[in-house]
């Protein structure tokens, strides 16, 4: 109950003070709780808001909050300048911080770039995201049109997790065109994330502020198509300050969408000319990649899981009869599941027998 009360009053302060980080931090230093901090405000300020009502409305929209002191709070964000005092989220964050905070094993990657992306740029973003997600990598981006949208979509196509950091509150989706995309993000086990109160609008300066969270949640940042004044360059600057790896996909030297990208390369960012190159650099090359990580996102039911266990147990390829006998299902049911696993590239058929691909 105490934690819930703290959420009520932090949310109220965040609204009244317009998410002013300096003022919120100052209050936290002066008072032992957000409740006491709220009641320290001038009377006219306190009358501007009904704290319980505001938080109740947020809860009805399935908006949750975690403080930076909470165990669930992403470890990586504790390392960055201006660590968000609390994060609102809609969806499901990991049960522990390992996914975000383990530097040795964290391969979570931010993919960002221009809203006015070319067809080739969006295709590349989707392909990079899809292949990374197949390998258990969570994709972090900002839900904008163009490269961000393609990155989120690619991760979802692979059945993987993706997290969208918004420059507005979680009561609304911006841009509106990506509403269905946000549903997919949540359904596949990811989340929408924001440091702003639920009804906060997407003001221009907030896009810059949220970029530090996009880079902060990631161990590596992939820039695809960044013009000279792209917000992706701000994300790269934050990444540099946060000691994250920065990768850049190059393009034609005369194309406006690559002016910022090439500037980053001149400043020392790592060039990525192929998917294989990035996978190798991140330690995700096929030859060193475990089957468990590769298929975890694509398995749809227990039958598929059993089939894979049977195939993995054998040193040689397995016949369909062996699989049918082991799972106790009809040939039609087994063939249906095998067809799905083969289409996903998880298994391969050779001479009527199956092996892990």
From TrEMBL:
Q: Which Pfam families match?
A: DNA_processg_A (PF02481)
Do you know which InterPro entries this protein is assigned to?
DprA (IPR003488), DrpA_SLOG (IPR057666), WH-like_DNA-bd_sf (IPR036388), WH_DNA-bd_sf (IPR036390)
Membrane-spanning ranges: none
Q: Which domain of life is it from?
A: Bacteria
Instruction: Output one GO BP term.
Output: DNA-mediated transformation
Q: Where is the Smf/DprA SLOG domain?
A: 65-282
Q: Which family does it belong to?
A: Belongs to the DprA/Smf family.
PANTHER family assigned: PROTEIN SMF
The identity of this protein, by name, is: DNA protecting protein DprA
Source organism: Candidatus Liptonbacteria bacterium RIFOXYB1_FULL_36_10
């Amino acid at each position: 109950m105490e934690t819930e009360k703290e959420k009520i009053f932090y949310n109220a302060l965040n609204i009244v003070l317009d998410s002013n980080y300096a003022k919120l931090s100052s209050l936290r230093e002066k008072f032992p709780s957000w409740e006491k901090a709220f009641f320290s405000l001038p009377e006219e300020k306190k009358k501007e808001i009904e704290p319980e009502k505001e938080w109740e409305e947020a809860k009805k929209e399935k908006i949750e909050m975690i403080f930076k002191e909470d165990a669930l709070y992403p470890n990586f964000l504790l390392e960055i300048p201006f660590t968000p005092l609390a994060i609102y989220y809609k969806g499901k964050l990991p049960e522990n911080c390992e996914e975000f905070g383990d530097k040795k094993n964290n391969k979570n990657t931010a993919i960002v770039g221009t809203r006015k992306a070319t067809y080739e740029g969006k295709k590349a973003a989707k392909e990079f995201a899809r292949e990374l997600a197949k390998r258990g990598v969570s994709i972090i981006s900002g839900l904008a049109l163009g490269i961000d949208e393609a990155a989120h979509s690619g991760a979802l196509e692979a059945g993987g997790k993706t997290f969208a950091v918004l420059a507005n509150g979680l009561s609304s989706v911006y841009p509106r065109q990506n509403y269905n995309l946000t549903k997919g993000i949540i359904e596949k086990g990811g989340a929408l994330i924001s440091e702003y109160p639920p009804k906060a609008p997407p003001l221009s300066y907030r896009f810059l502020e949220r970029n530090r969270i996009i880079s902060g949640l990631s161990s590596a940042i992939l820039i695809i198509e960044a013009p000279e004044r792209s917000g992706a360059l701000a994300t790269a600057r934050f990444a540099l300050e946060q000691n994250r790896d920065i990768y850049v996909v190059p393009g034609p030297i005369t194309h406006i969408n690559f002016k910022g990208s090439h500037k980053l390369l001149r400043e020392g960012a790592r060039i990525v000319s192929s998917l294989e190159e990035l996978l190798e650099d991140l330690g995700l090359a096929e030859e060193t990649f475990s089957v468990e990580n590769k298929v975890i996102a694509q398995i749809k039911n227990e039958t598929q899981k059993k089939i894979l266990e049977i195939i993995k147990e054998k040193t040689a390829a397995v016949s369909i009869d062996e699989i049918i006998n082991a799972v106790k299902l009809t040939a039609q049911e087994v063939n249906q599941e095998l067809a799905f696993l083969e289409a996903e590239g998880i298994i391969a058929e050779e001479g009527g027998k199956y092996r892990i691909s």
